[in-house]
Amino acid sequence: MELINDLPQKLELEYPCTWCYKVVANERAGIEIAALEIFCERKYSLEPSKASSNGKYISMNLELLIHNEDERTYFYETLKAHPHIKMVL
Questions:
Q1: What InterPro entries is this protein classified in (predicted)?
Q2: Is 4 among the domain residues?
Q3: Average pLDDT, the chain
Q4: Are 27 and 46 in contact (CB under 8 A)?
């Protein structure tokens, strides 16, 4: 039996493409602030996703146009490092 995670496959994307990050924080305002600080003049959209069952966390889908792999990784790492953000998927 082969495990999917053991296969040496790399994600093949054709750039530019629209990419969606799922961003998790304690509150919606934290995600909105992080997006404004990180993407300043870039066009992006934020859509509500889900709240945790106990209401402690909220997630939103952040979608924007990505031009290359480095840019996609940079935005992921920058979002993940922001103090208002708990997790990025």
A1: UPF0250_YbeD-like, YbeD-like_sf
A2: no
A3: 92
A4: no
Residue 1 lies in a domain: no
Residue 60 inside a domain? The answer is yes
Q: Is residue 75 part of a domain?
A: yes
Structure tokens at 45: 């959209």
77, with CB counted inside 10 A (0-12, 13-18, 19+), is exposed
Count of structural domains, the chain: 1
Percentage of residues in the chain having pLDDT higher than 70? 91
Examine the pLDDT at 2 and tell me if it is beyond 80: no
DSSP letter for each residue of 46-82: EEEEEE-TTSS-EEEEEEEEE-SHHHHHHHHHHHHHS
CATH of the domain at 61: 3.30.70.260
Whether the bond between 8 and the residue before it is cis, its omega within 30 degrees of 0, is: no
37-59 pLDDT, tens digit each: 999 999 999 999 988 888 899 99
